[in-house]
Amino acid sequence: MTSQVATPSSRLDNSVESFPAVTLPGPRAFQEELRLWPFDLPFPYRISHEGDRVAAHSREWVQRVGLVSGEAELRRHDRHGMALFACLNYPDAPIEGLNLVGDWVSWWAIWSDFPDDPAFVQEPGRPERFFASLTAVVTSSPEALTRVSDDPHIKAFTDIWRRWCQGMSPQFVARTRKNWVDWFASYRTRTEHRRESRTLDVEEYLSLRDVTGGGPLEMDAAQRVGGYEVQPEFLESPPLKAMRHIAGRVINITQDVQSLAKEEAAGDQHNLVIVLEHEQNLTRENALRQIHERLRGYTDSFLRHEAEIPRFLDTLMVPVEERTSIYRHAADLRQLMRGTVDFCSASGRYH
Hints:
Blueprint: E1 3-6, E2 22-25, H1 51-64, H2 71-80, H3 83-89, H4 95-111, H5 118-122, H6 126-139, H7 152-165, H8 170-196, H9 202-212, H10 215-226, H11 232-235, H12 238-258, H13 260-265, H14 272-280, H15 284-315, H16 324-346
Antiparallel strand pairs: 1-2
Helix pairs in contact: 1-3, 1-4, 3-4, 3-16, 4-7, 4-10, 6-7, 6-8, 8-9, 10-16, 12-15, 12-16, 14-15
């Protein structure tokens, strides 16, 4: 296979500095299934060996809370293999944490396509009621959560939310609550765009995808299942804030590429490849090349910011023993990027 050199494209946002041209696979690679076109993320492959236990728990849980009934729905759940998401993204988590993440993403996979379902989108008030009910779970008092909804989606999320907060500080709960509220609001916005057949430009798309992609929640989950918390002042510090933004973009963009065939078949325009093609009048090949160039810029920038953390903490005179959670979170961000690529390549949800 011959290789071609891709020239850097114009930046999609201002978070990544200029970067040199990269060598990408030749044209034959684009004739194969998109999921086989490699993403070279400079982070090692890692996986928990609790996969069978997590899958068994998730299978029992989705049936117990009423999300799945009947053989066809169960086969669909098995084909998606969402337990693998937990094991690839959180390889060091204990079984309780892996089960929590596996349940969360299994629940997410069941309703995340609602905004692409004309029956859901066009029924007056239905999207608003659905997302308002989910939002109410995280904004209600603990006493209110004892009144479990008959809707299996709400019932399942009530269970997830209780477990999500267990053992965490009020400060963490308040922060993650906001992230959940923002996430549900972003799905309402996405549904409205689908109803209106609205076409987004690249900047609009990326800003919305930063939230719909669930990246902030995946990062919250890293702290929850990892048994640590990063103080807000460090989460908002220049190097770590940039790294979290970059990690979210890498997670979302690599997922967009690997889910493109599925989403295109469903008529879903909520995908960076399609947005680039439309806005910049690009061929499929050139849109993919621009994305791969972009990802190399992201990972280069991530590594530069990561290298800045020790000196940044030195300037603040942060005691060495208080730096552990920050370094742990940086490592978890690496894993979330790599785990997403590996999961999307393997899961039946994306092909």
